[in-house]
Each structure stands twice: as C-alpha cells, then as structure tokens.
Design a protein that fits this description.
The complex is a heterodimer of chains A (156) and B (84). In chain A, 34% of the residues lie in helices and 35% in strands. With 156 residues, chain A is α+β, with helices and mostly antiparallel strands. In chain A, strands 3, 4, 6, 8 and 9 form a 5-stranded antiparallel beta sheet that branches. The chains are: A alpha+beta (156), B alpha+beta (84).
Chain lengths: 156, 84
C-alpha cells in the first residue's frame, strides 16, 4: 500500500500548476482511474468583462468542510485517494481557482466522485467570489440556483 | 462571551468583521442573537440580518437558526457560498 504524504486539502493564496499537482499525486498514489477538474477564472460575466476575481473565505471552516466532503466522497465512491486545492485572495483572469482529483479503481466511480466534490464544494465550502470588472466596478457573485440544484442530486 | 463573525457582503454591509457578545437569558441561541443584533443596531443591521438565505454557522459548522449557543462559541453570519 502506498504511503500518502500529499495533503488532502490545501487552501492557498499562491497560484498552483495543475500539471504539477497531477504529477505529485500520481507519484504518491498511482491508481487505475483518475479524474481531475481544474476551474479557471473566466474573463467575462453577465455584466461585462472581469479584470480580477477576489475570493474571500472563512479560514478554518473552509479546510474542515473540504476535508469532510473529501471523506464523504472517499467513502461513498470507494476512492483510493483524493485531493482538493482551492485558492483565495485576488486572482487574475485565466489563473486556476480550484483543482480536484480523485483516484478510484474504475472510471464511473472516479467521474461521479469528482462531480460530487465540485457540486458540493461550490455550495458548502465557505468561499465568496467578488468580480472586479475592467471598468473599475466590483460586485459580489450571487449564488446560482443551478448550483443548488446540482447539489441536491447528491443528497441521500 | 461569544465571538460573532461576518463574511462577504454581510461584513461589508455592516462594516464589522467581528465582535464579542455577552450571553444572557434573552441571548442564548443563534436565533435570539440574530434578533438582538438586528433590533439593537439600526435599520442596516435589521435588513442585512433578515435577508433571505442568510447562512448561520456555529463553531464553523452550518447550523439551524434554533441552535443553542454557550460561552466561548463562535457564531458567523454570511450569504450563500460561491466557491469553486
């Protein structure tokens, strides 16, 4: 059995490289079915062009919620390993925001676990996005009902 | 004494990040704390804390508004999360 030294949950200000995260995880926990998701800052929203994205979070609660979601996913989908990296602070357009990776024995569990983690962390982890527009205005991003609908389908 | 924290647009609307509150017979749950803060601090607090979908956390876990609070607890109020 491989010894896992990578941290399961990382909440950081600094930019990360998804390819490096993948290599690191693979070195520590090689597996049969690996699914990853990387979310990036988009350059537009309904009200115009986004210059930067600011992410506020609740230190402590963020890490514990992400840890609990990972443990739930691990149990529910029988994962070999999982990892979540999420950033906070001020992010530039096209920078990565979040990286989720899951390792399972088979693809369907891996796909489902990755969807589960993204759908649940969007509504359950205490992060709040604020868009700084290129015209100098700024607005808090409202929670989307489509996200809470996606969250609902995982409730047992 | 408990610590009360505010995040995101709730923090911004109230202009307060954190405060300490003395518990009493009338402040002993998240609901009664919210009511007291809304009643005692003017219209902006009343409006902000009564917004629909306000989320309440007790000791860094989301709880129902009826949850009881005791000395040393940390209560937080914030809007729905928008991570990912």
């Amino acid at each position: 059995m491989s010894h896992i030294v990578v941290q399961n949950v990382v909440v950081q200000k600094d930019v990360f490289n998804a390819a490096e995260q993948y290599d690191l995880l693979m070195r520590e926990c090689p597996g049969a079915a690996i699914v990853t998701f990387t979310g990036y800052v988009r350059d537009h929203c309904d009200s115009g062009c986004v210059g930067q994205l600011e992410l506020e979070h609740y230190p402590g609660m963020t890490e514990s919620v992400l840890g609990e979601l990972g443990q739930q996913a691990s149990k529910r989908f029988n994962l070999k390993a999982w990892r979540i990296v999420h950033r906070y602070g001020v992010l530039d357009v096209n920078e990565p925001i979040v990286w989720v990776a899951v390792i399972a024995d088979h693809r369907s569990a891996a796909f489902d676990a990755c969807q589960f983690l993204m759908d649940t962390l969007k509504t359950d982890a205490p992060f709040w996005k604020r868009e700084h527009m290129t015209d100098g205005s700024a607005n808090w991003v409202a929670a989307k009902s489509s996200d809470s609908e996606r969250r609902k389908r995982w409730r047992e | 004494m408990i610590t009360v924290r505010f995040f995101s647009m709730v923090r911004e609307a109230l202009g307060v990040e954190e405060l300490s509150v003395e518990l009493s017979d009338s402040i002993n749950s998240v609901a009664s704390l919210k009511r007291a803060l809304a009643d005692q601090n003017g219209a902006i607090w009343d409006e902000t804390l009564h917004q629909p979908n306000l989320v309440h956390a007790l000791n860094q876990r989301v709880v129902r508004i009826e949850a009881a609070v005791v000395d040393g607890d940390e209560v937080a109020f914030f809007p729905p999360m928008t991570g990912g």
